[in-house]
Amino acid sequence: MSEPTDWALAYARQADADFRAWELCETHPEAVAAECHKLLFLQMACEKLCKAHLIRGGTVPQDLQSSHGYIEKPLPLVMRQQIIHLGQNPKKMQSVLTLCRHLAGEIEVLNPAMRRDGQRPDNCEYPWEAGDRVISPLTWSFQALRLCTVSAGRTFVKLLRGAIDRIINELENSNERPHHS
What we know:
Layout: H1 4-27, H2 35-56, H3 74-85, H4 94-108, E1 128-130, E2 133-135, H5 143-147, H6 151-173
Antiparallel strand pairs: 1-2
């Protein structure tokens, strides 16, 4: 029978794989068809990181499997933990945390299931209707991508990489991980 920590580690490892795809898109933009594909990897990495975090905090893994709405609230907490883990004062990194809260909401709505009551149909996977026209994610300019390029956004990306690595490391090397014989 699987343990919650098995689920947490599996989500964290998948977040790592998704984020590595994001990083490859950053270093080799010519390999990506469009920005929406790059953002899909970012959204998936953040979602899985947040699910790993929530499971570590006691959430039952099965409770997280029916929704994609697990980024906006937990991601800023994960980023704050990462700042503290690095020995930084969160108060001195307030601009990064403010951007992180905003980015967390923008990243969450990249998933088409998270439309915010029809107010945000833009997503990085499927076309949507706006007035009398159909818009493709291929031609849409996503705010999340622009926010990742400002100074605090670049710090956010580094913190995200560090948080994924830290959680995997902690799960692999701690007593949280059950030892199977």
